[in-house]
Amino acid sequence: MQRTKKHNGKAGTRHICLLGASFATRNLGVSVLSDGAIGFLFKAFPEVSICLVDYSRRKDVYTGSWEGQAVMVDTVPVRFSKNILLRNNIGVLFIMALLLRFLGKGKLRAMVLRAFPALGTLAASKINCGISGGDSFSDIYGMRRFLYVSLPMIVAQLTGVPFVMLPQTYGPFQSRLSRIIARHILRKSALVFTRDTDGQSKLDELFDRGYSVPQARFCPDVAFAVEPRPVDHGRMPGLLDGRRGRKVIAGLNVSGLLYIGGYSGENMFGLRDEYPEVVQQVARALLSSGADRVMLIPHVRGGREHAESDTTASYKLASRLRETGTDNIEIVEGIEEHRELKFIIGRCDLFVGSRMHSCIAALSQGVPTIGLAYSDKFHGVLESAGAGDWVVDLRTTDARASAGAVAKGMKSRKKMAERLSKTRGRIDSSLVHSAHELRKI
Question: Of 359, 411, 352, 414, which is closest to residue 385 (Cα–Cα)?
Fold first, then answer.
């Protein structure tokens, strides 16, 4: 996604605010989710402009192509900071949004909205939408991150503008406080989309005394609809070997976060075996079961000095494999744009991924895909594409069994591809139907 200094939309155009989306992170999964969310909103409301309410120190404008048109998307920066003098401090905005509840629609309200432009933008929106980076509406990554995601949504709801939860995963929630906050946000939402086929039951588990979420609807992950952008053959000489080409190419996405044991560094997600050992055995299984080459495809950027980056983990894995005599390993580098990376993933004959949106990039192009899961979100999302039985849960499956499942998938990839060819139309139809549901608000 490119930055531009031009402005988005025409004067007086109604707008929609999108929260929990960004093109400024190292995680290309967040970028592709943001891309898909914008496309989904334009499918529902082609006449509006869209802005991203995002944690940042400055305003940016991004240019992309959605629904056949070049569009500019503005950002509205907010801050998660101890500096209470910042007018876009999320804590200050929360207090001001509470104050709005008592001011009615008179001059005092107008003065507050002018004094705090981020709040004014949210209050003037047609609808406000949250997508939480796809999987951050949970305390699985820690309470701080959950508050980081939740506070802007609460502020948006306090403005009185209809609020929608776009397709995402809900939970798990380990603390009582996070469950209380989650319940409040969901109850105050006009519409709740879940990207999991069993998402309704999971949502109901959040509530006690028989309360459910009647406004909940299933909708596939919006990233399914993002179109790939072709990469010139000269940039990736071996790229065209795959997908009915001269060689069988297996793609493997290695998660830098799992490689270091999660944020705690101590097997934070409770994997049964050490992750480095798992992916080492998986890579060998791919080569021994029919792959001519394994392409290590990072989905979170960052140089080798960034421990959590997939690139760093890919180099560590490649080094371990070569030390034991395993060759035919290639690392994809120099691809900084999510649509281009999706194109590369689409050249694989089989894809194995630990990052959710790397798996979606493959599935949406008909590539047989095996998800190496560290949370429940994998099964729900892959099941929506008819691939729920291709999930290997690393919390309950050891390295040897994981490698065996991957080898089995490699040998049965043609049958897997046939099944996927029947699901794409259903996903597209479901996204269109959900966009129409959104338009009714």
Answer: 359
Using CB atoms within 10 A of its CB, is residue 208 exposed (0-12), middle (13-18) or buried (19+)?
A: exposed
Q: Are 338 and 238 in contact (CB under 8 A)?
A: no
Of 247, 251, 268, which is closest to residue 259 (Cα–Cα)?
268
What does DSSP say about strands 49-55 and 329-331: parallel, antiparallel, or unpaired? unpaired
Reported as a single tens digit per residue, the pLDDT across 234-260 is 666 566 565 556 789 999 999 999 999
Specify the pTM: 0.92
Quickly count: other Cβ atoms within 10 Å of residue 408's Cβ.
Answer: 14
pLDDT band at 3 (very low <50, low <70, confident <90, very high): very low
The pLDDT value given to residue 359: 97
Q: Which residues contact 129 (CB under 8 A, 6 or more apart)?
A: 16, 17, 18, 19, 37, 41, 163, 164, 165, 166
Q: Cβ neighbours of residue 419 under 8 Å, at least 6 residues apart?
A: 386, 387
Which ranges in 332-398 belong to alpha helices (H)?
338-345, 356-363, 377-384
Region at 50 (left for phi over 0; alpha for psi -120 to 50; beta for the rest): beta
The side-by-side arrangement of strands in the sheet containing 163-168 is 2-3, 61-66, 69-78, 49-55, 15-19, 128-130, 163-168, 191-194, 216-218
H or E stretch covering 12: none
